[in-house]
User: Fold these one by one.
Assistant:
Number 1:
Amino acid sequence: MKKYRFDLFLGVCAIGLLVLCGVLYTNGQNQNELEKALSQPQSKPALKETKFGYDVTQYHFEEYPINYGSFLGDILSDRGVSYNTIYKLEKAAEKVYSLRKIKAGKNITLIRKDECEAPTGFVYSPSLFTYVVFTFDDTISVSEKQVPFETCRETLTGTIEAGSSLSQSMDDKGLSLAMTDELEDALAQVYFPNAQPGDQWKIIYDRKYIKGKPVGSGHILAACYKNGNSEYFGFYFENDRYKGYYDIEGTPNKKTFLRAPVRASRISSGYNLNRFHPVLKRRKPHLGTDYAAAKGTPIFSVSDGVITRRGFTKGNGNYLKIKHNGVYQSQYLHMSKFKSGLKVGSRVSQGQVIGYVGSTGLATGNHVCFRFWKNGRQINHLRENFPPLDPMPYESLPEYYEVRDYYRRELSELLYEDEVKVVYAITNLSS
Ligand SMILES: [Zn+2]
């Protein structure tokens, strides 16, 4: 027994090392070397392969889809599990993970000791990071477990090419749209629809890996954006009082009013008192700002407020108007549809989705025409100087500066031309 344990320990160390090396070196040319190393015959017996903690040589697994309208109880009883057991399982599950939380459209994995016998348990994964083991062998037990994952700190840089956008340049580097959203949050002081060719960005972010594969989009810790000779920074800071992105001085990178009601969009027509209308074929002032975006792109409220109008007109199509305070109001036109549940009188908060981009009403293509009022007069919101948000109070700044200085150093060591690289694995959790 002692000998076996020792071997097991060595095996765990060896596999741990291989996984770590795997994550550290899986990029580019080192891939082949890693594969070679992994395929070498091993002098020590390999660690027993397990699935959800079960020895794969002792158990049989069958993935089974939960269809809409089907009942878990039926699936189990059809396979020989008694009603009494199902009833007891239901009771036991209540305290840990209710059977009612198992969603149609997902799979469960049935577990059997013998292929010809009734299952003795099943596994359900509510998310990529957790799974729940339901066993009803001799005893009934339900336990929720964490999938072992590793968090790696990574860095990435990019350049906006001519005719491209921030989201395109991030997509080119394999980052999801969610990461573009996060970068826009991290650098809320930058107005991205005005991005110029040659603008560059750098980010430091954490990404989770399961079995060497990245999962989820990642979380930005520090970002920097270069536009001409200006460089903008955003640092993620969190303590018991503050949470979010802050600039060099410690002012939140957040606005009282967002500059655009859609993300990853471009201005297709600006506020213009002298504009030639493309549909009406005559000069008509454009008292709004048009943001072109794909049909269905979420539109959000630029600030907290209350919905004062919700309707349809021949010109506006589906539109909403929001009163933000005694001074400012905003309006959003040509929506393909409204976010359900919103009506006149509904409260909305900054960044809350209120509808989706479309081309209803008098519109040549999919866009949102954004209109903005100050004291009852339509104005160009991009020209308005809104009051800035208060910076962090003095007593919290030293703590923030420590975080800021650390990431600032890391960012300065990162060149704009650098390709993706994994800096280091920061956690190695196992269930
Ligand atoms: Zn417009």
Number 2:
Amino acid sequence: MTKLECSVTNCLHNTDNCCCKHAIVVDGCDAKEAYETCCGSFDQKKEGAFQNLFQTPESRLEIDCEAVNCVYNEKRRCSAGKIGITGDGASDASHTECATFRMRG
Ligand code: SF4
């Protein structure tokens, strides 16, 4: 399980810079830089959209990751102890990224 900090505060699943999902998917199968990755589980918070006010932040979660060029990627699972997803103000998943991505050297 990976500790996740997420600054995408306009995502439906974000509470207090944490994600309330039990598992997320990070996309970016051809990524060579962090900006080429994105959080595939992003859902934009919209006016009037249903949000479960009682959702609890998960500080550790399963991360399935398509960014196979990353040093932390092990069989499409993230093996990092801690990652950060960034993209405050995102209105689309492509505006988010895994800031912890590091290209295999
Ligand atoms: S650190 Fe690497 S393996 Fe982990 S989620 Fe980010 S891009 Fe994927």
